[in-house]
Specification:
single chain, alpha+beta, three-stranded antiparallel β-sheet, 10 helices, 18% strand, elongated, disordered N terminus, disordered C terminus
Length: 275
C-alpha cells in the first residue's frame, strides 16, 4: 500500500503549478471550490463543507486546477486583455518618455543598410563581422558578468545586477527584481556582444534607456543566421507557443542543430490577418 509521501508526487502536475501556475485558472477554481463547499455545508452540515473545501484546496495546490479542462477553457473564453495581466513579463529598469524608433537607431548607428534593391534591410558588413567576433569571444569566455554593462549610465550599481540561469534560459536581476530575460544562452550571448559593439561605436547608446537598449538588441537577433551557442544554422518561421495563460502566435528564430531559440516576437493580429 502506497504512503501519502509516495502519492503526493503523483498528484503534482508541474506544467500547471509552481512557476507555471495559471493565476486566472487558480482564481476560477477557488471560486468554484468555495461555491461547491458552501452547497455541501448547506446540504450536509458545516463540517462536511469545511472538509470539501480543504480537499478542493489540496487539489488546486497540487494539480493547479479543480475542474478538469480549466487551463484550456480559461485560454479559450477569458478575454485576452484579462489574461495578459497575469503573464509573467519582466519589469524594465528604466523607461524613456522620448519617442523611440528601433529602425532609426539601427540606421543611425550603421548597423543595417538597405539591400535587395531597397526592399529590405541587411546587416552592414563591418557590424556583422564585429558582432560575430564578439560572440565568438564570449562563447569561449568563462566569465559572462558583463550583463551589468546593459545598465551602464542608468544609475544602477553594477554590484546590484546579477544573472541567473534556468536550464538554457537566462534572467537578469537588480537585487531581487527581474528586469530582463533571454530565451537561451545564444540569445544572451548575442545581446552582450551587440551591446559591446554599440557601446564602443555608437555615441548615442549612452542616451538610450533600458527599454530602448533591450529593443534594439532584441531586434538585431532577427538577423542572426548562425547560432551564438553552437554555430548551427538558424531558421525563422511562425509558431504557436503556450504561456502561463495564453496561446500566442509568434515569429521565432531557432537553431536547427541545438534547438536554441534566439529570437521570438509576438505577431500582431493585423500581421496575422494580412497573410
Amino acid at each position: 500500500m502506497s504512503t501519502l509521501s509516495e502519492r503526493v508526487p503523483r498528484l503534482r502536475q508541474p506544467e500547471y503549478t509552481g512557476e507555471n501556475r495559471c493565476i486566472p485558472c487558480t482564481l476560477v477554481n477557488l471560486a468554484v471550490a468555495a461555491a461547491g463547499s458552501g452547497v455541501v455545508a448547506v446540504l450536509a452540515g458545516p463540517p462536511a463543507g469545511v472538509a470539501a473545501f480543504a480537499v478542493s484546496l489540496a487539489l488546486v495546490y497540487f494539480r493547479g486546477y479543480l475542474v478538469p479542462g480549466t487551463p484550456t477553457l480559461t485560454k479559450r473564453y477569458l478575454p485576452d486583455s484579462v489574461l495578459r495581466l497575469f503573464d509573467k513579463d519582466p519589469q524594465p529598469a528604466a523607461r524613456s518618455t522620448d519617442p523611440f524608433d528601433v529602425e532609426t537607431v539601427l540606421l543611425e548607428a550603421d548597423l543595417v543598410s538597405e539591400c535587395r534593391g531597397g526592399e529590405d534591410l541587411c546587416l552592414t558588413p563591418w557590424f556583422e563581422r564585429e558582432w560575430n567576433d564578439r560572440i565568438d569571444g564570449l562563447r569561449d569566455a568563462a566569465d559572462e558578468s558583463s550583463v551589468a554593462d546593459l545598465f551602464d549610465s542608468l544609475d544602477v550599481d553594477s554590484d546590484r545586477v546579477s544573472i541567473r540561469a534556468h536550464g538554457d534560459a537566462y534572467e537578469a536581476y537588480i537585487d531581487d527584481m527581474r528586469v530582463g530575460q533571454w530565451e537561451s544562452r545564444g540569445a544572451y550571448l548575442a545581446d552582450l556582444a551587440a551591446e559591446a559593439v554599440l557601446r564602443d561605436h555608437y555615441p548615442g547608446w549612452q542616451q538610450l534607456g533600458f527599454d530602448a537598449r533591450a529593443e534594439v538588441l532584441g531586434s538585431l537577433r532577427l538577423w542572426l543566421d548562425r547560432c551564438p551557442s553552437c554555430d548551427g544554422t538558424v531558421t525563422i518561421g511562425e509558431e504557436t507557443v503556450e504561456s502561463c495563460c495564453r496561446s500566442i502566435d509568434v515569429l521565432a528564430s531557432t537553431c536547427e542543430s541545438c534547438g536554441a531559440r534566439v529570437f521570438e516576437a509576438q505577431l500582431s493580429p493585423d500581421a496575422m490577418a494580412a497573410e
